[in-house]
Amino acid sequence: MNIYPAVDLLGGKCVRLKQGKYDQVTVYNDDPIAQAFQFKEAGAKWIHVVDLDAAKSGIPTNHEIIKRISIETGLMVDTGGGIRNMDTLRRWIEDYGVSRCVIGTSAIKDRKFTEEALKLYGDKIAIGIDAHDGEVAVDGWTAGSGVKAVDFALTMKSIGAQTVVFTDISRDGMLSGPAFESTKELVDVTGLKVVASGGIGSDEDIMYIKGSGCEGVIVGKAIYEGRVDLKKCLQSV
Fold first, then answer.
1. Which of 51, 53, 78, 130 is catalytic?
2. Catalytic residue among 8, 51, 78, 172
């Protein structure tokens, strides 16, 4: 299982939101590039980077930071936030060299774009499924879609998706433990590669979610607050 340490970008800083709420922000590092290098030094191969400004507005805002993380650190970058057209997608993959782009809101709202992206870039595309009470959320988690997470994942699989990034919004930033059952359901029902996100609060939580069969897990706040020993966990998974 891969561990994806998280860098969430808001106003050019490395932050974490609580349950996806933009009015509940904690700044952990003013220098996201330095933070990315710290994760690399701990042994990380992947890093999960989200442009929170763009996730809400649809306009790439922190793209130069993402470009620098990709090029300067040499890490495999899994990135999302505001990727809603082919021009943005091509820039991330072909110019910035990111390893995988996460399409969230557009996967719900723009099927033509999503199908084109999957056809052109294949496993370099992941579908972001951010759910609250089983319903997929959009627009930076500010609105519901009326679509159930499992149903949506199966639809995405039917048009070529291989990987989904599944976030339980109610657990995000809460350190209350991962959504084991819903993650396992996605793995078992869809057969997709699932990257779990939300709720990790300890080294034990990482080993627990591994039992769901997920391909990877995203860890943010727990690393920043010293609850997860990233280096130790990377060596044990």
1. 130
2. 8
